Amino acid sequence: MQQVQKQPTLIRVMNDQIPRIQVQVDRFREVNGTKPVIVEHRETIILSERYRLCEQIKSGGQGSVYFALDLRFHERVVVKIAHHIMDAIANSRFVKEAATLALLSHPNLVKGFGFATFDNGILFFPMEYASKRTLWTYLQEHKDGAIPEIGIPLLLQLCDGLSELHRNGIIHRDLKPSNLLLTQNDTKLKITDFGLLRYLVEVEDPIAIVGTRDYMAPEQSAGSDVTSSSDIYSFGMIMYQLLCGHPPSSQYFERPRTIRSDISRKTEEVIMHALAKLPEARFQDVEQLKSALESSILERPRFRYWG
Questions:
Q1: Which of 200, 227, 252, 266 could cross-link to 169 by cystine, CB 3.0-4.6 Å?
Q2: Could you say which of 174, 193, 231, 285 is catalytic?
Q3: 160 catalytic residue (yes or no)
């Protein structure tokens, strides 16, 4: 079993940041009322006299993401802005995401550049600019999926990033193609969007069912306790879609080799093992999953051998 390292620094920073930010929000509300500040990407907005918003990339349930210019270092960065600063639960999740990205460093995780900051009604944090291209974009361009020689190296990088999270006692809870950035001509992968992350040492959120249903583990969809095994299930869904071109049906999982003959038997076994309905029937940890995936590379379908 993979040893989970509890991160007292992360928890301590998070527990310090949340009430500090909430005090600032409450003071702002006393002066300006409860109406939230609306950020329009067409406006010229500079946050903390440093980050000039340039272009909105996307908007999700937790906040909006913008390309921005760091005026101090004259570099392109990304800034995430919270939607609902008056919601204490949403604030705490946002602060938690910022603290986690700022204190973790791994080549397959997007890096944060600072803790959450409240500036004139806007709660935000900056992070590295990696790419606007995602695995979802890639899948829209490759309807039949990626050949294993391209897909499996990306999945191994996903293993590495996910393993780093789990080693630090963190569950992502929202792994999906649109939360995986691709760089360097689609050869490098970074996990992003940690708005729904949960620390294993925490009590479950008041709202138990969070995530994206198409990629949720059965226990996550049912509102049961979510563990690192739930992320492994989401990995299996991503792997199936990446190699087969579409996600499996919710009613019936067609065996990947019936869809693509260039998927080896061992690779198929990895997918089906990760997608086991019961958490205890899946890989015990990401290291075990990665080892099985690496072994599958050695087996190739017979028709692909020459001589």
A1: 200
A2: 174
A3: no
